[in-house]
């Protein structure tokens, strides 16, 4: 186990000195009959349900439910406005603009690069290998004194494969900065989540979301799991009421649906395998990347023309044919059985007339 990790050495000086905003709901916790502390509208809301009171700034009830589902204590959970909020906070907490840098391993989720640009932080790209795994030697060479974050998406977007666990552990053990593992698609994978390893790796931050398997993309609720010290930093930086009450209410109700979500996951995985097999049978398909996610990356002939054909027939997929290491590829989300049949029928129809 590495012993050189120091959160204090990684944090920006202004974040160390930061005194977070203290909201009315931070200063008073509990129940009361008369609330006259937060300058709210005491008469209610012009709606069937009252939303005139500020929400719990730390979303305690949701974290309690997540603890029962995921086994991660509340003190190790941060909830954000999508995973994107957690990504942005990581840059603002640990990266001095114009000085520090982060490492990205493309092809990968594009928001890491966008957040780096927004925060004026240099990003170094170390491409995945041709089988979409980490280039450990390349990453080791790219790390310098000012490297603060390494982002690893597993299962990876847009390729769909899981990154080898042993390789991720190698980086966790040998890197003094923060290793961010984005597990947005972990529910569809046979690989275990790194959430069970938080105590072993103090430099580990795990990102997950309710947008995929849980079917709550419109609510924009993301999760970060990390050691208590790192979560304290997240809560110090975030806006005071970053998760609104309407979202909290819906999420609390949705988290009761574990059984139906597990059924959906099972069906998506079954449909993913059927779709992969059917695509591999087409002579125009060069390669179907084995997927641990709810999508498939497919290399095929005339990808742009096929994409346009599908759009003209009301079927929208993602064209990744211009992305490095994904040349000639479309990314296909696994839909319902009916949607998958329509997709295959249209792909076959396109190649029949080309």
UniProtKB/TrEMBL annotation:
Pathway as given in its UniProt record: Lipid metabolism; Amino-acid biosynthesis; L-histidine biosynthesis; L-histidine from 5-phospho-alpha-D-ribose 1-diphosphate: step 7/9
Enzyme class: transferase
Cited SUPFAM superfamilies: PLP-dependent transferases
Catalytic activity: L-histidinol phosphate + 2-oxoglutarate = 3-(imidazol-4-yl)-2-oxopropyl phosphate + L-glutamate
One example GO MF annotation: histidinol-phosphate transaminase activity
Cofactor(s) needed: pyridoxal 5'-phosphate
Keywords, ordered alphabetically: Amino-acid biosynthesis, Aminotransferase, Histidine biosynthesis, Pyridoxal phosphate, Transferase
Residues the record lists as N6-(pyridoxal phosphate)lysine modifications: 212
Gene3D superfamilies: Aspartate Aminotransferase, domain 1 (3.90.1150.10), Type I PLP-dependent aspartate aminotransferase-like (Major domain) (3.40.640.10)
Coiled coil: none
UniProt domain Aminotransferase class I/classII large: residue ranges: 49-347
Presence of keyword Amino-acid biosynthesis: yes
UniProt-listed Enzyme Commission number(s): 2.6.1.9
Database matches in HAMAP family: HisC_aminotrans_2 (MF_01023)
Assembly with partners or alone: Homodimer.
Similarity comment: family membership: Belongs to the class-II pyridoxal-phosphate-dependent aminotransferase family. Histidinol-phosphate aminotransferase subfamily.
Name this protein carries in UniProt: Histidinol-phosphate aminotransferase
Record gene name: hisC
